[in-house]
Design a protein that fits this description.
The protein is α+β, with helices and mostly antiparallel strands. It contains 5 helices and 7 strands; from the N terminus they run H-H-H-E-E-E-E-E-H-H-E-E. It has 3 domains: 108 residues; 38 residues; 100 residues.
Length: 262
């Protein structure tokens, strides 16, 4: 009986040791699998972490680049806004100056229209040909201004010299109008004398408020308050034709309220 119990205990003990070994072996396999999985996870994490670091660096670089581009864009926008504002101000100033110029141009053209009839007749004719552009609707302000300067320059040049001009004049002679060829002698823009080739017709002219006016023959006394001798005018004509014959010559001229001699 004791032998049978001993055999049963020995069999049970052998069975328990085999089972424990199997369990231990299974646990070892599970542990090895877990360690293997842990190693793979660590490798994957390291690889993923490295990828994420690189991606973070790239994103940081992109962010910095975008920030730089945005900053430059803002700076460029500010510069463009400043330039636009400067151009707008410049354009406004030019428009204001143009408006002032146009207003002054209108006044100057009106002045030319008022002055022209008071000029010596030869200069009136010259202005008449050139002044038509001032009233042209197609002419620019610059063209009109340039033409104004031309007119004023011609008047200034005329005013700086004693000029002689040969012209046909219609005068009243013995109650009738008569057209004769005369030599006109202009002293600047305001005074002139004329004489015919045979010295039989002579006169005096000057710039009046309402325009240029001539007095003929003995009628000159009314404005000169002294006799006008045709010989004196003829002498001036001869001097202008031959400057080497220059000598002192007296010719009366009329101012506003008095007469003087040249």
């Amino acid at each position: 009986m004791k032998k049978i119990i001993a055999l049963i205990l020995l069999s049970f003990s052998s069975f328990s040791m085999a089972e424990s070994y199997n369990q231990l072996n299974e646990l070892m396999n599970q542990w090895l699998q877990l360690e293997s999985q842990k190693g793979r996870l660590q490798q994957e994490w390291q690889a993923r972490n490295e990828y994420l670091k690189q991606k973070q660096q790239l994103l940081t670089l992109e962010k910095n680049e975008l920030s730089s581009l945005l900053k430059k864009a803002d700076e460029n926008k500010n510069q463009v806004d400043e330039k636009r504002l400067a151009l707008t101000n410049k354009q406004q100033n030019l428009e204001n100056q143009q408006a002032i110029l146009d207003e002054q141009l209108v006044q100057a053209i009106e002045f030319i229209a008022v002055v022209q009839p008071r000029l010596p007749p030869p200069l009136q004719d010259e202005w008449q040909d050139k002044a038509s552009l001032l009233h042209s609707e197609t002419a620019t302000s610059s063209e009109k201004l340039e033409r104004l300067l031309v007119l004023l320059k011609s008047a200034d040049e005329f005013n700086q010299r004693v000029a002689i001009n040969q012209s046909m004049m219609t005068i009243e002679h013995q109650g009738q109008e008569k057209t004769i060829l005369v030599d006109q002698i202009y002293l600047g823009l305001t005074h002139a004398w004329y004489i015919s080739e045979d010295n039989s017709h002579f006169g005096y002219g000057r710039s009046e408020q309402l325009g240029w006016k001539w007095w003929h023959g003995d009628n000159t006394k009314a404005v000169l308050n002294s006799p006008l001798q045709p010989e004196d005018i003829a002498n001036v004509r001869k001097i202008l034709a031959q400057p080497t014959l220059a000598k002192y010559v007296q010719l009366p001229l009329a101012l506003t309220t008095t007469s003087e001699e040249l």
